[in-house]
Structures are given as C-alpha cells and as structure tokens.
UniProtKB/TrEMBL annotation:
The keyword Oxidoreductase does not apply. Gene3D superfamilies: Alkaline Phosphatase, subunit A, NAD(P)-binding Rossmann-like Domain. InterPro entries: Alkaline_phosphatase_core_sf (IPR017850), Sulfatase_N (IPR000917). Pfam families: Sulfatase (PF00884). This is Sulfatase-like hydrolase/transferase. It comes from Cohnella rhizosphaerae. Keywords: Hydrolase. Residues 256-489 form the Sulfatase N-terminal domain. One of its GO terms (molecular function) is hydrolase activity.
C-alpha cells in the first residue's frame, strides 16, 4: 500500500484531538434522531406509534438507551404482537399508560398519525423525527433514515453539510452541531470551512474552545506546509481537471475561470464526442482522433493514447482520480476512496489526495481529476438555498409540469463553489505546472431544456470548455471548430512541441450516443411520451452553420444555427448547398442518410455519395 506522509501527519493530529470530535458512522439524519430521542426521553414517559420495520430499525439506532412504556399501531395484524418485549396495543391505550410523548415511528404515514394525535390526544407531545426537514427538502427527496437511498448514498457529504446548517438555524444543540459539523469537515478536508467554524466556536466560548483552536492551528500549519511544497516543485507536473457536464457558456459566470481562459490557449468552439461520460472518455483518451470510432466500447483502452505515451516516456507518475477507468496504461494509479460515504468523492477530498502525492515524490506527476459537483442534480459542499436532489432527467421528463426552473439557481451555486475551489488549487501549483480545464460533455439545467445530459444534443449538451495553460506558450483564443475526439493528440502535441496541430481541425464536429439505457426510464410511459425521439440513439453532425441529427429510427432533423427551437425550413434548390456544407463526413460515420425531414413534412433526397472529410488547412498555428 502506498505510504502517504502528509496523510499520516493529518491522522496523528486527528488522533490527538479525537475526544472533542464525534464518530461519523451515522448519517446526519441518524445522528439527529439518536440525539433527539435521547434528549426528549429524559424524565418522560415515551410511547412509539408504529410497529413496522421503521420501529425495528429505530430500536437498533437508539441502542436500548431509552425506556419505552408502550408501542401502539392501528393494524389489527400487529396489535397483540411484541417488539423488544413490549406488547403492541391500539392507540387508545396511550391514555392508559399515561404517556407524555409519542414518537411517530413511520415515514410514509407520519402526517396521518400526526393529525390523529392532534385531534384525539391533545395533551400528548408529538415527536416527528422528520419534521425538521419538511421546509428544507422537497417531500420526495427524503427517505427513511435506514434506507440507502440515492440522495444519501451518492451525495451524502453535501446533504450532511446542508442538514447541519439547517439544524443549527432552527435551534438544535449548538455544541453537538459544532462537533458533528467539524468532524464531517475534517473528513472532507474542507480546511477553509474548518477555520470559520472554529472561530465561531471560540466566539461562543464553547467547552474545550482552547482545544478546537489548537486543532485548527495545527491543521492550518500542515496545510500551508503542503501548499508551499506543492508550489515549489520544479518539474513540469500535468493536471487535467474535468468538471463533469460543465458547459462552455458557464465560464462567463466564473471570475477565476474567465481570467484563466485569458491566460490559456482556449478552444472557443470545442464539442464533445458524446453526451455520456463513458463514451466521451472513449473519444477523448483512446488516442484515435477520428470521427465514427466506437464510442460505446465497454472499456476505455488507453494503449494508443499519445497523451499517456508522452507521460510514460517522460517518467511521469500517473494518477487518475475518478471518472471511468482508463485501461492498458502501465503504472496508472486509479485513486479510489473506500470510505462508506464516498460513492462520489467530493472535490475537496480529491484535491487532498493530489496534495498528498505532490508532497510524497520529487518525480514529475500527471493527474487526471474528474469533478462531479457540476453533474445533475448539482450538489456541492456549499449551498445557500434549499437543496433538491431531484434535478435529474428522470424527474424532468416524468413530470412535464415541473420543469425544474430552480435547477439553474442550484447549478450556479455549484459553479461558484467550483470556481473558488479551482482558484485555490491552481494558485497552489508551481508556475511550471501545465494545467488543463475541460469537460466531458455539457448538460441542461431545467426550464425549457431537459435537466442533465442523457437525452438531447443541444448546444448546452455538447459545447464544452477546453483550456490549456502552458508556461512556455502565449495565450490565445482559437475559434475554429474542434472535436474533443481529438483532445488526446492535440494535448500531446502541445506538451511535446508547444504548438497546435492544425491537422486536427475539421469543418464539422461529430457527436453520437446510444439509446437511453436505464430500464426504469424507457419503460416509463411519461418519459417515453415527453422525451419523444430523444429516447433513441442518434448521430449528430455540426458545421459552423448547420446541425444535422440522424436518429436510429431513421428520422432526421436539420437546424440552422443558432436556432435549435424550430427545424430549418428551406427551399428545395438550396439542398445541394446544405449537403456540401453540413454532410462533410464519410458514409461509414453516418451510413444511412437518405433524406432530411422538415417542419412542413416534405422530404428531399440527398445526393448520392458523400464528400470525404474536409480539413481546414492553415499555414501557421493559431498560437504562432
């Protein structure tokens, strides 16, 4: 196992101060329920309403640390049975047992139970374990505390942070909040937030404030030392940051990324090879640089990659943090985190892993860092407004009346977090570092377009950032069309010679994807009806003027850019010009093009045969 000195130093600090922290074995909602019941049960006669699975799981969670005087339920099948040696009775027995408080131990029926308690037992206090989140999350975003539901397994760290903030706002125990929140921030390596929280602890003069201050001081010294080490490296380290689903148009909303684009070689018209991450990685990292390759291969074979060959030949240590594994690259280290939280590792944790490696070796390093915060449902470690996990293509198409108009605001919160984080990370690196910021594909954020990236190939879905900051190259903006299927050879050319390879530009870009692949989507009548043709696979060809789409059903669409709302209407005599402009790709890429369907229902035959791929020839590189 790789020994990481920086991580060992961090662990020693945490071990030293462990008595003032809390165990993270519980999710935020579990920790809240445990502490609320323990607190409410003091000097009270507690009953539980509900005798199902929820109550069995609740007893496991509270560890028999409270005395329950009664369990009640309305089900005739459950009345008379026992749970933990306690007989289940009908609700009328609450008065008989002189109960002070009732815990509603049901998720799906809690509102009905609450209503009955208010109407029939007005002197009994109600403990609703989920009411704390009612005004925070949409009703379909929560699940019972014991369910490994999408929200809490795929994005647990973001929801924990948000839940702690809300619990604090509505009056939960401040000391417990601080300890829990700090423990999570330490786990996520969110050092800026740790510093802010510790200052708040000191300002409120909480118990052990001096220990929290000492912990923060040691951590900040450790972080500054690591940053200084990373910034003083003399080798030409390579960093590729890939924010999943980020669009080129998002750069204008990010102050750091806007400034970075002016300091870099920026491909202003770069387009993704697919709208699926795996397929885009196939196009970007397999090294063929060709349209029409098999973007849907089961594995991403990096054996022919010019980019990784450059890294290997120049003795780089190669690390991939997240994304789809790129195979057949000797000595590639795929960084995973086996922590029980981390299905999707947050950016702060990924960056800590990078820092650990930079402090561990003097050899040049190559880091590919996949960032998931920008992927729907747009969750990060810093939200100022109520958070929803339901900004997904499934929810968008399954309920056509809800167009996720709030998705844009949540996405922009993620952009602010990403921009601030990348600024800190890039500024930490040495001036010799080569930094690339790009995306695998784009996506929609709701409103008039589907949320996410699964279905369509509008400009938001395929127009992506591609920016490279080379210490030896002059910044410039390149406005030629560029397909990210040529990302690998283009970046390799820049690393080897510092020059743009003009042969990699074409007069078109090509994007393809398979049919929508999730059975719960394609078997859903609402989704099939609302998504329409986009449920099927397609191949798309985009020139500077037109966008042509061929679905696997045989249907074809044509748009004259920038208008993608209405299909292009044109007279028959202009069709030859269209094919010469738009269909500049060989028959094996889009083999079955026979006609183009227009809004007025007329069909026109295409010319026989296709013009071979045309390249834009330039006598000099755009950056020369």
């Amino acid at each position: 196992m790789e020994r990481l000195v920086l991580q060992e130093q961090f662990d020693r600090i945490i071990d030293k101060y462990r008595p003032i922290l809390v165990d993270l074995q519980y999710t935020a909602i579990q920790l809240y329920i445990r502490n609320r019941i323990w607190k409410e049960s003091k000097d009270s006669r507690i009953a539980i309403w509900g005798a199902g699975e929820h109550t069995l799981e609740l007893f496991k969670l509270i560890e028999d640390k409270i005395s329950v005087v009664a369990i009640v339920d309305t089900s005739s099948q459950k009345i008379g049975t026992e749970i933990k040696g306690i007989r289940v009775n009908s609700p009328e027995f609450l008065q008989t047992f002189k109960v002070d408080k009732v815990v509603i131990s049901s998720f799906s029926h809690r509102h009905e139970i609450r209503s009955r308690l208010l109407n029939e037992f007005e002197n009994i206090e109600i403990i609703d374990l989920y009411d704390i989140y009612d005004r925070v999350f949409p009703k379909d975003s929560l699940s019972p505390f014991y369910i490994d539901e999408y929200t809490f397994t795929k994005y647990p760290q973001e929801f924990r942070l948000y839940q702690y903030m809300i619990e604090h706002e509505i009056g939960s125990n401040f000391e417990l909040y601080c300890k829990s929140y700090l423990s999570l921030l330490l786990h996520l390596k969110e050092f800026d937030k740790i510093d802010v929280l510790v200052r708040e602890i000191i300002r409120n003069d909480l118990p052990n404030s001096d220990l929290y201050e000492a912990l923060n001081s040691e951590l900040q010294i450790l972080l500054r030392t690591a940053q200084m080490h990373a910034g003083s490296r003399t080798c030409k380290d390579i960093f590729i940051f890939i924010p999943d689903s980020m669009r080129m148009k998002d750069i204008q909303f990010c102050s750091f990324l806007t400034a970075f684009s002016r300091q870099a070689i920026t491909f202003d018209k770069a387009f993704s090879p697919s709208t699926y991450t795996h397929a885009s990685f196939v196009g970007m990292f397999t090294g063929s640089g060709k349209d029409g390759q098999n973007y849907h291969a089961d594995s991403i074979n990096g054996e022919e990659s010019s980019l990784f060959r450059f890294a290997i030949n120049n003795n780089y240590e190669i690390y991939q943090s997240g994304g789809h594994y790129i195979s057949n690259i000797p000595n590639l280290n795929f960084i995973t985190n086996l922590d029980r939280f981390q299905k999707n590792i947050p950016l702060s944790t990924r960056w800590w892993e990078v820092l650990c490696r930079l402090c561990n070796s003097s050899r040049p390093q190559f880091h590919l860092i996949h960032i998931l915060e920008t992927h729907s449902p747009f969750l990060c470690a810093e939200h100022l407004k109520p958070v929803s996990s339901r900004f997904t293509p499934y929810n968008y198409y399954n309920n056509s009346s809800d167009k996720h108009t709030d998705g844009e605001a949540q996405y922009h919160e993620v952009l602010r977090y990403l921009d601030k984080s990348l600024e800190s990370m890039v500024n930490t690196l040495s001036k010799n570092s080569i930094v690339t910021i790009c995306s695998d594909h784009g996506g929609g954020t709701g409103g008039d377009e589907p949320t996410g990236h699964v279905f369509t190939c509008y400009e938001n879905d395929i127009h992506v950032p591609f920016m490279i900051r080379l210490p030896s190259a002059q910044p410039c903006k390149i406005e030629k069309l560029f397909s990210m299927s040529r990302f690998d050879p283009m970046l390799a050319s820049l690393l080897e010679s510092g020059e743009i390879d003009d042969n990699l530009f074409t007069t078109h870009v090509y994007t393809a994807r398979r049919a929508v692949y999730k059975s719960e989507w394609i078997l859903n009548d609402n989704i099939r009806r609302n998504a329409g043709e986009w449920i099927h696979g397609f191949k798309m060809l985009r020139s500077s003027e037109f966008k042509y789409i061929s679905f696997e059903t045989g249907r074809e669409l044509l748009y004259k850019l920038p208008n993608e709302k209405r299909r292009f209407k044109q007279k028959k005599r202009t069709m030859k010009r269209f094919w010469e402009t738009c269909a500049l790709v060989c028959r094996e890429v889009i083999p079955n093009v026979k006609r183009c369907e227009y809004e007025n229902g007329h069909h026109y035959s295409s010319q026989n045969g296709f013009i071979s791929t045309a390249r834009q020839n330039s006598s000099s590189s755009p950056c020369r």
